[in-house]
Specification:
Layout (H helix, E strand, L loop, with lengths): L5 H4 L14 H12 L2 H7 L5 H10 L5 H6 L7 H11 L3 E7 L2 E8 L8 E10 L2 E7 L10 H12 L5 E3 L2 H6 L3 H14 L1 H16 L30 H13 L6 H17 L4 H14 L3 H8 L5 H18 L6 H15 L18 H9 L12 H6 L7 H8 L29 H13 L3 H36 L17 H11 L6 E3 L2 E3 L15 H14 L8 H19 L5 H16 L18 H11 L4 H11 L34 H18 L4 H14 L3 H15 L8 H18 L7 H15 L1 H9 L7 H12 L2 H7 L3 H21 L1 H11 L4 H15 L5 H13 L3 H13 L13 H14 L1 H14 L3 H13 L24 H21 L6 H15 L5 H15 L4 H11 L1
Parallel strand pairs: 1-5
Antiparallel strand pairs: 1-2, 2-3, 3-4, 6-7
Helix pairs in contact: 2-4, 6-7, 9-10, 11-12, 11-13, 12-13, 12-15, 13-15, 19-21, 20-21, 20-22, 22-23, 23-25, 26-27, 26-28, 28-29, 28-30, 29-31, 30-31, 31-32, 32-33, 32-34, 33-36, 34-36, 34-37, 36-37, 36-38, 37-38, 37-39, 39-40, 40-41, 40-42, 41-42, 41-43, 42-44, 43-44, 44-45, 45-46
């Protein structure tokens, strides 16, 4: 028995184009033309009057332009619009209908680059469907060309101007033999080049008594319509569908191919809505090509995942099959055929899995742990077609279901409303107690197959069921509340969430309910405006489909659910959530919607473990940040207290808390989620944390100027956000909002920014963070904006916030800069207070880390004698143990620059004790420092030079460096620095006497040692360089009194030891004798 009214089963019939009532003949002919093949009419009646035949033939052509549009383009695309233009500009001519065959010519007007061209078009049709098309343009596409569109629309819009003839067989039946012979001969004459061979062949066969043609009674007639056995469906070029899908898939989602495939899916939905059998046929062709995609086996072999775009296409494919098999009027043999095909595809190894790519079959740590604990066979393999296979078991015969979708006023009698009922709510409204995604799949199927009113009725019943369940869950929670709050965690949650579900139940209900309001929908400033449409049959006068849509979206988004396994499933949860929020944001919130919003927000807060916004949630529950951000923004203008309550409750992210509570047993995989580390399963954690940050930022912005609210938000941030980078972002956001360019800063929000900044400093003090320097500089800027007390505070508590290096080189240096003093407009006592804090910090840092902070400490303490002396003493104390020669040389140069040459000398001497310069290190970076130290000693006087030379001799073994020092010391007299109280002779120093004698001996010794070292591994290409080295050595030898004798002995010694190096020794003899 069919539960749909006849009008619903016959869509697409336009209202009569005549003002007067149609004749009984036309009424009957229309019905017959749509439902019966003409062959059946001929079989049923021995002789059909010609007027009746004419009206049947007349009404057999399609009557609905929507159908022509559906087969000519994607969503009123180019071919359809071009066809209308050709029709309206008079390009269609010679239109003739012979039986069930329409022909005509369509002329393409000339353009600047193309001449005028005329195309012959032929269309066959049957039972108001076009069954084949041909056009001279040679179009090869899924859709009809513009010329076929133009001819079809001509026939629909101007039927009275079309010459109408009965099928040609009827005309031939009226002719005698002579007339028939004349017709054939004229036909051959008119088309002899094309027709003559065929005519001769047929004549031969007819004249042969044994031929096959004589075994069959009658003859074919292409104009007589379809036979009884023919499928009654629209013409669809299957080869072109296959070819185009294959081509789009080969492009891998590039060049807009993903968009084209989505358009093909939309076309399938359009066909289903028109109840066109080609919808399932086209989907089958598409699926065959998807399964033949060569990338599937490649992805499986490599264990890599397909792209997100590709994965979404597979999801849509699976969802469409669910719609197809849930067609309320499909025949059982059709469903059996689909089930067989779906199982065949699903059994293939390459078939993509429902929960992602091929991830759950790979030996990753998560699954390996799970499979060791549980038998691998206990989890059946679920593919993208599994839902459709399961949907094949669903039927529409349930009497309660049939009544729900057949009537707006189906309710239980008032006398039956006492006690519990599985069929009706306490108010008598019908319920549909089914697995929610499955129930919503039924709604989607009804809507997809053109039963929008029926889909609405079932959607309302589902929402009434959800409402009742929500109320009962709240009642259960009230009894468990005390115990759950004591434990602080719950094991009660939904393992299968509605948001991110493959069947998208919430999105389906929302679209179904809002579609009915879109009849009056218009676009204004690019904002969609919806109108309230009362719910048919609802006892609540204030209830509309729009309020129901909002309510069910809030219910679904607020459902507490476990984060699913796998990257793709988790990403899908996030994406689906954002899609639903985007739809909600299109709603203009009026009083009715705000009332719904407030009511549902309060219920979600009070619903306990069944709500993601309840007081207690599972540790691995999907966070509510994105949803709460929408609720906060929507509620804020109407109920600020509730808005903050929702947002603050949603700030938590339990999976990041350090330990799981004892009640953390609600998910079969919870054990493995904390084995390798704390949260390996949460692939989207970065995205979720950023959403948490967005929620916090939204609250901070809204709370500007409200100290109490800001303090509450700050506490929530400090408690729940665990990423230093995100807290830093929040601090920056708060600072930016608090310091607008054109108006004075908001001190309340500035203080929050500062507190967040301080927390970031504490969090990153002992961990590596590449943005640390930026964070430190920002904090000083923020503290400067807050004022003097903030700066004093960070200087005094530096050790909890900064490293000693940061505290001296960045913090104190910036605080003491001229710009900071000007920015704060400080008076003298305030400047002194700040300077004193900076000096104290500098000395503390120098004590803790003298290597890196001593110089900064000296610089900061310059203006205070006692502090400066203290800093200098810290350097001296640390010089012998913890400081390197380069650090000491740097401080020594600073001291010289500041006018402390004797202190500089002392530090340089200490630096020399840490240095060791080997014989071959003639490009060592410390050479300049050594030369500078010697020059400083020489300028101070003979005593200082005498003190440093033994250090140089001990530390420097490089002959060229030593000779350079020796040369400089002999060029000028020592003591030219002019130290007060000292007398200098002004005489040049002799190399024969101390202290230069020691330096000369060391230099000559270094040249001798270096020469032997170099000769050990010398190659011919270095001979020239070696001879020059000996020349420099001779210059040094000659500074000694007997230097020429020493050098001659040295050369003779070389000739004797290295006589095997004949060529080199020959060069030595040539230069040195």
């Amino acid at each position: 028995s069919c539960w749909l009214p006849a009008a619903a089963r016959c869509p697409g019939l336009p209202s009569s184009r005549y003002r007067s009532p149609e004749s009984l003949l036309d009424c009957a002919a229309k019905a017959v033309a749509e439902k019966w093949a003409f062959e059946r009419v001929e079989e049923r009646f021995e002789r059909i009057p010609e007027p009746v035949q004419r009206r049947i033939v007349y009404w057999s052509f399609p009557r609905n332009e929507k159908e022509i549009c559906m087969y000519s383009s994607f969503q009123y695309g180019l071919p359809f619009r071009r066809g209308i233009r050709l029709l309206e500009t008079g390009c269609v001519e010679n239109v003739l209908q012979v039986g069930f065959h329409l022909s005509g010519t369509v002329t393409e007007p000339a353009t600047s680059s193309e001449p005028e061209v005329t195309h012959k078009v032929a269309i066959s049709f049957d039972r108001c469907k076009i069954t084949s098309v041909t056009c001279g343009c040679g179009n090869r596409d899924i859709f009809y060309c513009a010329h076929v569109v133009a001819l079809s629309l001509y026939r629909i819009r101007k039927p009275e101007q079309v010459k109408l003839r009965l099928p040609i067989s009827e005309t031939l039946f009226q002719m005698n033999r002579d007339q028939l012979q004349k017709l054939v001969q004229y036909l051959i004459t008119a088309h002899h080049t094309e027709v003559l061979p065929t005519a001769q062949k047929l004549a031969d066969e007819i004249l042969s008594s044994n031929s096959e043609i004589n075994q069959v009674h009658g003859a074919p007639d292409p104009t007589a319509g379809a036979s009884i056995d023919d499928d009654n469906c629209w013409h669809l070029d299957e080869d072109q569908v296959r070819e185009q899908v294959k081509q789009f898939l080969s492009q891998g989602g590039y060049y807009g191919s993903g968009k084209q495939l989505n358009s093909m899916f939309a076309k399938v939905r359009e066909m289903l809505r028109m109840r066109d059998s080609n919808g399932a046929r086209m989907l089958t062709l598409i699926t065959e090509q998807f399964m033949a995609d060569p990338r599937l086996s490649l992805w499986r072999q490599q264990g890599t995942g397909m792209t997100d775009k590709c994965r979404q296409l597979w999801d849509e494919l699976g969802a469409l099959w669910v719609c197809v098999v849930l067609n309320p009027h499909c025949k059982s043999e059709e469903k059996s055929g689909w089930l067989k095909q779906l199982k065949k595809w699903g059994d293939m190894d390459i078939c993509p899995l429902e929960d992602g790519n091929y991830g759950s079959e790979l030996p990753n740590i998560t699954n390996a742990l799970f499979y060791n604990l549980n038998n691998i066979d206990c989890t059946p393999r679920r593919t993208v077609f599994s839902r459709a296979v399961e949907a094949c078991d669903l039927h529409w015969q349930d009497s309660h279901l049939q009544r729900i979708i057949s009537s707006d006023y189906y309710m239980s009698p008032s006398y039956q409303r006492e006690g519990e009922s599985l069929l009706f709510s306490p108010q008598g409204l019908p319920l549909w107690l089914d697995h929610v995604p499955t129930a919503c799949a039924r709604v989607d199927a009804l809507r997809s197959h053109g039963y929008s009113r029926e889909a609405l009725r079932l959607a309302v019943a589902i929402i009434n069921t959800l409402r009742l369940q929500q109320q009962r869950q709240m009642d259960i929670y009230k009894h468990q509340k005390k115990e759950l709050l004591q434990r602080g965690v719950t094991s009660t949650t939904n393992l299968e969430g509605w948001v991110g579900h493959p069947l998208d139940p919430i999105g389906c209900l929302f679209i179904t309910l809002t579609e009915t309001t879109s009849k009056n929908l218009f676009i204004q400033r690019k904002v969609l405006i919806y109108h309230h449409v009362p719910v048919w049959g609802s006892p609540d006068a204030g209830e509309s489909y729009l309020t129901l849509a909002l309510e069910v979206a809030l219910m679904g988004m607020g459902q507490q659910r476990i984060m699913p396994e796998g990257l793709y499933a988790q990403d899908k949860v996030c994406r689906n959530e954002e899609q639903i929020v985007a739809k909600l944001q299109e709603l203009e919130l009026d009083d009715l919607l705000v009332q719904t919003l407030r009511k549902q927000a309060i219920q979600l807060l009070e619903a306990g473990p069944f709500s993601g916004l309840g007081e207690v949630i599972h540790r691995e529950s999907v966070p509510m940040h994105t949803f709460a951000k929408y609720l906060f923004s929507a509620l804020l203008p109407h109920d600020a207290d509730l808005a903050y309550k929702v947002a603050l409750r949603a700030m938590r992210l339990p999976v990041l808390e350090s330990s799981a509570g004892s009640g953390d047993v609600g998910h079969p995989h919870h054990g493995i989620s904390i084995v390798p580390s704390r949260y390996p399963r949460w692939f989207t954690l970065g995205h979720l944390e950023s959403q948490q940050c967005e929620l916090a930022s939204t609250m901070l912005t809204a709370a500007k100027g409200d100290m109490l609210r800001l303090r509450t938000v700050l506490e929530a941030i400090q408690k729940n956000i665990h990423s230093s980078s995100l807290i830093f972002k929040l601090a920056q956001d708060a600072f930016k909002i608090a310091t607008p360019a054109e108006s004075p800063p908001d001190i309340t929000l500035l203080n929050v920014a500062l507190e967040l900044g301080l927390q970031v400093m504490r969090m990153t003090l002992s961990t590596l963070n590449w943005r640390r320097r930026e964070m430190v500089r920002w904090l000083v800027t923020c503290a400067t904006e807050v004022g003097l007390r903030a700066l004093v505070s960070i200087l005094q508590s530096w050790y909890t916030l900064f490293t000693p290096t940061e505290a001296t080189s960045i913090v104190a240096a910036t605080v003491m800069s001229h710009n900071t003093i000007l920015r704060l407009s400080l008076d003298y006592p305030q400047r002194e207070e700040l300077a004193s804090c900076a000096r104290t910090l500098a000395l503390q840092c120098a004590m803790k880390d003298p290597q890196n902070c001593a110089l900064s400490a000296l610089t900061l303490c310059e203006k205070d004698h006692i502090a400066f002396e203290t800093a200098y003493q810290i350097v001296i104390d640390a010089a012998s143990t913890g400081m390197t020669y380069s650090q000491l040389f740097t401080i020594a140069r600073y001291m010289e620059h500041r006018g402390y040459p004797l202190r500089s000398f002392k530090l340089a001497s200490l630096a020399m004790t840490h240095l060791n310069l080997a014989y071959n290190q003639d490009t060592h970076p410390a050479i300049n420092d050594v030369l500078w130290a010697c020059a400083l000693s020489h300028s101070l006087g003979k005593n200082e030079l005498a003190a440093i030379i033994p250090l140089v001799v001990k530390s420097v073994h490089c002959a060229t460096v030593l000779s350079d020092i020796l040369r400089r010391c002999t060029m000028t007299a020592p003591g030219l620095a002019g130290i007060p109280g000292r007398r200098n002779s002004g005489k040049l120093m002799s190399t024969d006497k101390a202290p230069l004698r020691q330096l000369l001996d060391a230099t000559i010794s270094a040249y001798i040692n270096t020469t032997h070292s170099r000769l050990t591994h010398i190659s011919p290409r270095h001979y020239g360089e070696f001879i020059e080295f000996l020349s420099k050595a001779r210059e040094t030898f000659l500074l000694a009194q007997d230097g020429h004798i020493q050098f001659a002995q040295f050369i003779d010694n070389l000739k004797q030891i290295y006589k095997g190096k004949k060529k080199l020794m020959m060069l030595v003899r040539e230069r040195f004798g």
